[in-house]
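User: Is it possible to get a 3D structure for a protein together with its bound compound? The compound here is 3-hydroxybutanoyl-coenzyme A. I've pasted both below.
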Amino acid sequence: VICRKFSHSASLNAIKKVTVVGGGLMGSGIAQVAAQAGQNVTIVDLNSDILEKAQKSIQNNLGRVARKLYKDDPSKMEEFVKEANNRIKVSTKIEDGVDADLIVEAIVELLEPKQKLFNRLDELAPQHTILASNTSSISINEIGSGIKRKDRFGGLHFFNPVPVMRLLEVIKSDEMSQETYNTMMEWGKSVGKTCITCKDTPGFVVNRLLGPYSAEAFRMFERGDASKEDIDIGMKLGAGYPMGPLELADYTGLDTNKFVLEVLYQKTKNPVFKPIPLLNKMVEEGKLGIKTGEGIYKYKK
Ligand code: 3HC
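Assistant: Yes, that's possible. Here is the predicted structure of the complex:
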C-alpha cells in the first residue's frame, strides 16, 4: 500500500528541484522564475557558450526584478540576486539534470530532437519526475509518444519575456493524470504565473489566436495597405496591445513566426495560416528580427 501511495506520485507542492533543458531565451527565463521562487534549478545545454550567455542574461534580469522589489535597499537587492543565482547550476550533461522533481524542455522546435530527449529523460529520471515541454506549437502527445510515464507528462508553455509575461499554458496530454495536472498548475502558481489549461490542439490558446492576427499583419504590409509603423501604431493605440504585430514578430523572431504558422497550416489546413511570401523571403535572407539586427525594422546591434 505504501509503495502504491508513494511510487508514482509527485504530490502537490513537491516541486523543489527543477531542470530546464535548453539554455536559450525561453529556457533561461524559465530557470530564472523558478530560482526566484526558491527552487533549485539546473540548466542543461550541450553548448557551454549558450550556458554562459544564459547565466549573464539571468543575472541582468534578476537585477531588473530586484530593483523593482527593493527600490530603496541596495543590500537587499544584492542579496536577492545572489541568492537566486546561487540556486542555479549549469551543465552540458543531461545526466547532471535528471535528479529533479520537474524537467522542462525548451530546446529547438523540432519534433525528432524533442522525442529523443524525452525518451532519454524517461529512462534516466527517477520515477516521480514530471516531464514537460515548452513547445509553442508541436503536439504534446507526439512529443511524448515514446515515453512510458505518459501520466507524468504534459506541456508548460511560457511566453517571452518569461520573467514579465504573467501567463502559463498548461497543456493536457491524453494520458496525463489528474495529480500531474494539479502539480503543474500549482507549480505555475508558485513561479508567479496565472495558469490556463488547453487540450493538445495546434497552437494551444495563445498562438492559435496570435497566428491569424500576425499573418494578416504581414499580408497587410505586403499588400502596401498601410506602413509598418501605422500597422503597429494602429494596434497599440486602437486595441491596447503593448506592441504592434510587426514589432512583436521582430521581438519573437520571424523564424519562430514562420514555423508556428507552418505547423498551424499543416495541422488545421485553415487558409489563414497559408505561407506568406514576404515572411518566407525575409527568413531566407536571415532577417529574423531583433536577434539578427534586422527584421521588419532595423536595430542597432
Ligand atoms: N526580464 C525581466 N524584466 C523585464 C524583461 C526581461 N527580459 N524585459 C522587460 N522587463 C521589465 C522591465 O524591467 C520593466 O519593468 P518595470 O515596468 O517594472 O520598470 C517592464 O518589464 C517593462 O519593460 P520596458 O519598460 O523595458 O518595455 P515595455 O514597457 O515596452 O515592455 C514588454 C516590454 C514587456 C516586452 C512589452 O512590450 C510586452 O508585453 N510586449 C508583448 C510581448 C508578448 O506579446 N509576448 C508574447 C509573445 S508570443 C510567445 O512568447 C509565444 C511563443 O510560443 C512564440
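The two ends are 61 Å apart (CA to CA). The CA atoms of residues 20 and 104 lie 5 Å apart.
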